[in-house]
Structure formats: structure tokens, C-alpha cells
């Protein structure tokens, strides 16, 4: 009889365990529209995750406008006491590239604040144009600060947080990434985030966490060419400083003229805002393969150095005309001297992105401090 009772108890216990676990995993979740939450890295108030407002559709070139609908640099800030977090999002184009991870193109990075520092949790991995991904479940239901970095090379039509039915989504607990003016960084595909493996590893997002201020990512793949219509948008931005890093996409025939014109444009609208001009870095093939006598005047190797000369000429001309708070960064070691930081002949991997952030950080930080930027 005792053995029967023991067996009955054991069977009951074994039956209850999976049901208990099942009840945890299938708890009801509610949906929260991310558009209702605090957005950073976007300078306008339109209800979308685009980098430019609609009025710029007919002002900037078509290629720039289409890329401005990619959500690079835009993030969501909130706090919540949920024990489970899922993300459901719909992309605008469902892009895929052969040299960049889909998690970087279309994924979502989630960070939480621990001891006043951002800690990576998980990447929401895309499965299709609409995806749903479990970030965590059955964690302690205590209120925490969160940061979600949006995709680098696709747009986001919609984004929903799925949380415990009894949990709340609240404003951030701390002012991390909220108390200081953003930095506007204008550049190429490299600036946009190609080819980081996930959004948080784009160097502007690395710098945002380290400098504790958002970045307006104005990287436009193949389209970062010192455009004055982009300068119009930059003039509308209340920022701590501007960074112009357009050499990679620009032809030597216009770097000097356009760089001078863009700096003058920005200084006319924001005379007290510092500007940093950044050279393009040397590409791996230019370093590894000798130019020699067979190299034509139009070879990429020679073009890199010619671009440096043109940008430097623009800087020196502007300084001679009395432009203040103008700074210059050489591209020689921007991505490292071993050339292990690239995925192709130009775009950085996560290692390259990290190295770029490491080299840019002290320069930008010094400029901000010397100008007492808020």
C-alpha cells in the first residue's frame, strides 16, 4: 500500500512539473506599439522610423531619400518590469546582401542598464518581412531600463513589444542617452553601418553608448557626397557637433568645392557648433598590392591619397577664411594597421567598427569638452 501511495505521489509530481513549466511559457502577453515609446536618434516628430521628415522627399536626391527610410541609428528607450520580452516587427523592403549579416541589415539589438552601463542581451533575428523573436522569458519581474537599436539597412514599418499581461512599459528610470545633445554624423555606407553583424555594433551606436549621447546617423550607402540639401536637414538639428565623413563616396573632382560649401553652409546656420572633417581610411587591397608602374592614374590606391589632399585643402582654405571650431582627423589608422577589420575591400566587420569607434572617441570627446558642449 505504501509503495502504491508513493508511486501515485511520484506520478502526480511528474505530471505537475511540465504543466507548471508550460503555464510559465504560455503566459498571456500584451502588445505595446513602439511608436508610443521614447525614440532617440531621430530629429523629427513624424510617426515613423525614418531619418528625414517627409518634406525632404523632393529636396534630397532620390537615392538619399530612399536610404533615409532605413532606420540606422534610431533607437527606442523605455523601462519595464516584464519577465518576458518578445519583439514583433515588419520591415519595409526585406533587404539581403551577400557580405552583411541579416541581423545587421534587419535585426533588433536589445540592451539593458546594469550598474549604469549598457549590457547587451540578445538580437532579434529576422525570419521574413514580418518576424517575431523571443528576447527573454521567465526573468525576475523587476523594473529595468532598456534600449533597442533598430535595423541598419532596412526600414521598420511597425514594431511591437510583447510583454507580460500584468507588466508595464514606463519612461526610462535614468537619463542615460537622454541628457546630452546628439551628434550628427554624415557619411557613407560605412557610417550607415555596413557591415556590422548587428545594429549595436555600428560604430555610431558604439560611440553613442560610450559618449552617452545619441547620434543622428546620416550615413547613406554610396550616396554620402557632401550634399547641401543634406546640409539643410543638418541645420535643423539641435546638435553638439557635426562630423562630415563623405570622402569614401565622393569624387576627387568635387571634394574640395563641396566640402568648403557644406562647412560654410553649416557655419552660417550654426556658427558655434563644432565640425570635424574625417578622411577615408586606406582599403586593404591598396595596402597589400603595390601600385607600381602599371597602375593607372585612376586606380583606387592613388584616389585614396588624392581624396586626402582635396579634403585637407578644403580644411586649410576654411581655416584661412576665419572659420572657427573646425577640426580634422586623418584616416591613416582609423581601422587599424593590420587590415583584419574588413569584410570586403572597404566595409568594416565588428572588429573594424570597434576600432573606428576607439579612434574616433578621444577626438570627438576632446572636441566636445573643449567646446563645453552639452
Could you walk me through the main structural features you see in this protein, from its secondary elements to its overall organization?
With 374 residues, the protein is α/β, with parallel strands linked by helices. The protein has 2 domains: 29-170, Sandwich (Jelly Rolls), CATH 2.60.120.260; 183-370, Rossmann fold. It is 32% helix and 22% strand. It is built from 10 helices and 15 strands. It has helices at residues 2-25, 62-68, 102-106, 189-192, 203-211, 228-236, 255-269, 284-288, 300-320, 350-370; strands spanning 29-33, 38-40, 75-80, 85-91, 108-114, 117-124, 130-136, 144-149, 156-164, 169-170, 183-187, 215-219, 241-245, 275-278, 326-329. Strands 2, 3, 5, 6, 8 and 10 form a 6-stranded antiparallel β-sheet that branches. Strands 12-11-13-14-15 form a 5-stranded parallel β-sheet, with helices on both faces. Helix 5 packs across helix 10 and helix 7 (255-269) packs parallel to helix 9 (300-320). The relative contact order is 0.13. Residues 12-24 and 292-298 have low confidence and may be disordered.
In short, what is this structure?
It is built from 10 helices and 15 strands. It is of the alpha/beta class and 374 residues long. It has 2 domains: 29-170, Jelly Rolls, CATH 2.60.120; 183-370, Rossmann fold.
Amino acid at each position: 500500500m505504501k509503495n502504491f501511495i508513493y508511486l501515485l505521489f511520484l506520478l502526480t509530481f511528474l505530471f505537475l512539473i511540465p504543466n507548471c513549466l508550460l503555464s510559465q511559457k504560455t503566459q498571456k502577453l500584451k502588445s505595446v506599439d513602439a511608436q508610443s515609446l521614447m525614440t532617440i536618434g531621430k530629429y523629427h516628430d513624424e510617426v515613423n522610423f525614418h531619418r528625414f521628415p517627409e518634406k525632404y522627399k523632393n529636396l534630397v536626391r532620390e537615392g538619399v531619400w530612399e536610404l533615409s527610410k532605413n532606420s540606422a541609428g534610431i533607437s527606442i528607450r523605455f523601462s519595464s518590469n516584464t519577465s518576458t520580452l518578445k519583439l514583433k516587427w515588419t520591415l519595409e523592403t526585406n533587404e539581403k546582401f551577400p557580405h552583411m549579416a541579416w541581423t545587421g541589415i534587419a535585426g533588433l539589438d536589445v540592451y539593458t542598464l546594469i550598474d549604469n552601463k549598457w549590457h547587451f542581451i540578445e538580437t532579434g533575428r529576422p525570419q521574413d518581412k514580418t518576424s517575431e523573436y523571443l528576447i527573454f522569458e521567465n526573468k525576475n519581474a523587476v523594473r529595468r531600463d532598456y534600449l533597442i537599436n533598430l535595423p541598419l539597412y532596412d526600414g521598420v514599418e511597425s514594431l511591437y513589444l510583447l510583454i507580460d499581461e500584468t507588466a508595464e512599459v514606463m519612461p526610462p528610470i535614468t537619463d542615460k542617452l537622454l541628457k546630452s545633445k546628439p551628434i550628427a554624423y554624415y557619411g557613407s555606407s560605412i557610417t550607415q553601418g555596413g557591415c556590422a553583424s548587428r545594429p549595436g555594433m555600428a560604430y555610431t551606436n558604439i560611440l553613442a553608448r560610450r559618449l552617452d549621447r545619441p547620434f543622428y546617423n546620416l550615413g547613406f550607402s554610396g550616396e554620402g557626397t557632401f550634399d547641401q540639401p543634406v546640409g539643410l536637414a543638418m541645420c535643423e538639428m539641435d546638435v553638439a557637433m557635426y562630423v562630415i565623413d563623405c570622402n569614401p563616396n565622393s569624387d576627387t573632382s568635387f571634394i574640395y568645392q563641396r566640402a568648403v560649401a557644406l562647412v560654410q553652409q553649416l557655419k552660417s546656420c550654426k556658427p558655434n557648433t563644432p565640425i570635424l572633417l574625417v578622411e577615408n581610411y586606406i582599403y586593404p587591397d591598396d595596402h597589400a598590392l603595390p601600385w607600381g608602374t602599371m597602375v593607372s592614374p585612376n586606380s583606387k590606391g592613388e584616389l585614396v591619397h588624392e581624396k586626402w589632399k582635396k579634403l585637407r585643402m578644403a580644411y586649410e582654405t576654411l581655416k584661412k577664411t576665419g572659420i572657427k571650431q573646425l577640426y580634422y582627423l586623418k584616416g591613416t589608422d582609423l581601422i587599424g594597421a593590420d587590415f583584419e577589420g574588413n569584410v570586403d575591400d572597404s566595409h568594416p566587420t565588428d572588429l573594424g567598427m570597434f576600432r573606428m569607434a576607439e579612434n574616433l572617441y578621444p577626438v570627438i570627446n576632446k572636441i566636445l569638452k573643449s567646446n563645453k558642449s552639452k
